[in-house]
Design a protein that fits this description.
The chain is an alpha/beta fold. It has 2 domains: 331 residues, 3-Layer(bba) Sandwich (FAD/NAD(P)-binding domain), CATH 3.50.50.60; 124 residues, Alpha-Beta Complex (Flavocytochrome C3, Chain A, domain 1). Helices cover 29% and strands 20% of the residues. The protein is elongated and about 75 Å long.
């Protein structure tokens, strides 16, 4: 075995949390090495939609004409990420959001000061701000709505431009990166984590860190055994990951006495198109509506998968379908069509008259301009008229090539639970005591989330608390 590689702070994993941890540690004067098991940095962060949840009055919000406050941001996230969201971490996150925006911009991350003003998973435009359910019921009763989804200036997937900026900033800060290097176990001496053992190009290598080790290795959606033990709702379903979110960092920490928190928590995403759904209805296998279609798509997905009988359908009419620009349809086409709702419901295997009753109730409300059942914003209310069409959510986006990453029922997701940490990233034991020398951030930890999720809160949580963990590790002394 080659001799140990020495540094002050060792970061394991080079996604968004690892990048910001490494930058902060290096800028605090530490010599930093980052290990990445893939052949290049980025991880699942680089493959993501790229939204970062930021608010409290960022320059982008102000440029788009919105006033926001940390208190309003906190009220929304407490409701949207609950129940059981981490109140202490949420407070730090919201109070520090504008400063975090400024830090990201100072490190090369860019946001165009323009708003995408409709429900979507990811805009087909380069707009830098988007709604993530803040302007939908019941959240409009919680806090004054302000859009907080900040994203890079590219259509659709913006995760790569975010990671490109952070990787460049890490290199400029003097961070050394070792790719194709897989950490296998933590090195502990006298109760203190002092490094890791790893495999690199077939060789065993030991890395020693004089101040601390920061685990930013991602979640465990790619580990079926861990899913079966902790988050079985994702078993056999699509994975939102780079394929390497196998829980290895969590497992290494457990071996040295770390505690975990909320391991069952997960994000669920249905491959339905919000641009069509908001102009029509989302119904379950019984033809029943169960949600306001203008809310955050992840909320629609959770309510469907967790509590509604499948399959799930988006029902529209010809006008609704034609209103959506072709580039924003993501290749989605109706799977069934009919002039009569009873005929359409029969084709979909629904109880007699169920779909026609649902649409009739919706149309009565739409004509009055008030959704009395689920409080959809009047902006999106319009009676549906023949001909009607139904879109099978399980068909996914771009039907025929199934490139959505979802499973056969149109469901994909990732885990939210992980190591129990302090706001400064210290990994705790089951007794609530920090493990000396060990820090963590990102999806390898249980961050700000309870049982809910909003897009941008993974990249936001990871980058924000990655910074804190890197800073804490750099300041540690032994």
């Amino acid at each position: 075995m080659p001799g140990p590689v020495a540094c002050d702070v060792l970061v394991v994993g080079f996604g968004c949390a690892g990048a910001t941890a490494a930058i902060e540690a290096a800028e605090a004067g530490a010599e930093v090495v980052v290990l990445e098991r893939a052949s290049a940095p980025g991880g699942s962060s680089a493959l993501s939609g790229g939204e970062i949840y930021l608010g409290g009055g960022t320059p982008v919000q102000e440029a788009c004409g919105f006033r926001d406050s940390p208190a309003a941001m906190l009220a929304f996230l407490t409701a949207a990420l609950g129940p059981h969201a981490d109140a202490e971490k949420l407070r730090h996150y919201c109070e520090g959001s504008v400063e975090h925006f400024d830090w990201l911009v100072a490190h090369g991350v860019t946001f165009k000061p323009s708003l995408y003003d409709a429900p979507t998973w990811m805009p087909a435009t380069d707009d830098g701000l988007m709604w993530l359910g803040e302007n939908s019921w019941p959240f409009t009763d919680v806090a004054d709505p302000a859009p907080r989804g900040h994203r890079g200036p590219v259509p659709y997937y913006a995760g790569k431009v975010l990671m490109d900026a952070l990787v460049a900033a890490a290199a400029a800060a003097g961070v050394v990166t070792h790719t194709d290097t897989r950490a296998t176990e933590l090195v502990v001496e006298d109760g203190v984590v002092v490094g890791v053992r790893a495999r690199r190009f077939g060789d065993d290598v030991e890395y020693r860190a004089s101040r601390g080790v920061v685990l930013t290795t991602g979640g465990f959606v790619d580990n079926e055994q861990m899913l079966s033990e902790h988050a079985p709702a994702l078993l056999g379903r699509g994975k939102v990951s780079d394929g390497l979110d196998d829980g290895s960092g969590i497992a290494m920490a457990l071996e040295v006495g770390a505690a975990t928190r909320r391991m069952h928590a997960h994000e669920t995403a249905l491959t339905y198109l919000p641009a069509l759904a908001v102009r029509g209805l989302v119904v379950n296998g019984l033809g029943q509506r169960f949600v306001n279609e203008d809310t955050y798509p992840g909320i629609v997905s959770h309510r469907a998968v967790e509590a509604q009988p499948p399959p799930y359908w988006v029902v529209v009419d010809e006008t609704a379908f034609e209103e959506v620009p072709e580039r924003e349809r993501w290749g989605v086409r109706p799977t069934h069509a009919a002039e009569d709702l009873d005929e359409l419901g029969a084709e979909l295997g629904m109880p007699d008259g169920a779909l026609s009753a649902t649409v009739a109730a919706y149309n009565r409300d739409a004509e009055r301009g008030e959704d009395t059942w689920f409080h959809k914003d009047p902006r999106w209310l319009r009676p549906l008229r023949a001909p009607y069409a139904a879109i099978d959510v399980a068909a996914g986006f771009h039907p025929g090539d199934r490139d959505s990453g979802a499973s056969g029922d149109g469901v994909a997701g990732f885990t939210l639970g992980g190591l129990h940490t302090t706001p400064d990233g210290e990994v705790l034991t089951w007794a609530g005591r920090p493990i000396p020398g060990l820090y963590a951030a990102g999806r390898s930890t249980s961050g700000i989330h309870g049982d809910g999720y909003i897009s941008g809160t993974s990249l936001g949580d990871g980058t924000f608390f990655g910074r804190r963990a890197g800073r804490a590790a750099a300041g540690a002394s032994r």
